[in-house]
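Colleagues,

For the teaching module next term, I've prepared a clean inverse folding example: a structure given as tokens, and then the sequence designed for it. I'd like students to try predicting residues themselves before seeing the answer, so please don't circulate the second half yet.
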């Protein structure tokens, strides 16, 4: 990362689904809390209290879906006042220096930038950087 303060990292769990709103509503009901729209119509959030949260999203049709049963992944997110793609690229490089591997190249999306990674044991996780200028 460069000298800008990227802000704190937040941990949540992310699940790819064909109907993010419906699945978020299900988990919100089970957890007795509220679901809310996230970064787009295809992204929903459930804040389960004590800092725990779930994110539900409809993946791009250009991607292969994760096999059912392995679709839950940790999502490490932060905001930036700079370039989300540059920040997620640098962050993913730092993770690679510690033994992770990029599952795919960092990419810019309408909500920010993301990079799917594999940890040193091969588990998938997502690095997500959104702009704090758009909120």
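(Answer key — instructors only)
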């Amino acid at each position: 990362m460069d000298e800008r303060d990227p802000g704190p990292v937040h941990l949540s769990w992310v699940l790819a689904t064909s109907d993010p709103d419906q699945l978020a509503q299900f988990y919100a009901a089970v957890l007795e809390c509220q679901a809310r729209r996230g970064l787009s119509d295809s992204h929903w959030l459930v804040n389960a209290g004590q800092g725990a949260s779930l994110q539900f999203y409809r993946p791009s049709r250009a991607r292969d879906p994760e096999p059912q049963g392995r679709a839950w992944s940790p999502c490490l997110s932060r905001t930036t006042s700079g370039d989300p793609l540059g920040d997620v690229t640098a962050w993913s490089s730092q993770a690679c220096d510690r033994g992770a591997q990029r599952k795919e190249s960092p990419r810019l999306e309408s909500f920010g930038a993301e990079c799917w990674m594999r940890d040193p044991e091969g588990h998938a996780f997502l690095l997500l950087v959104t702009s704090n200028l758009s909120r």
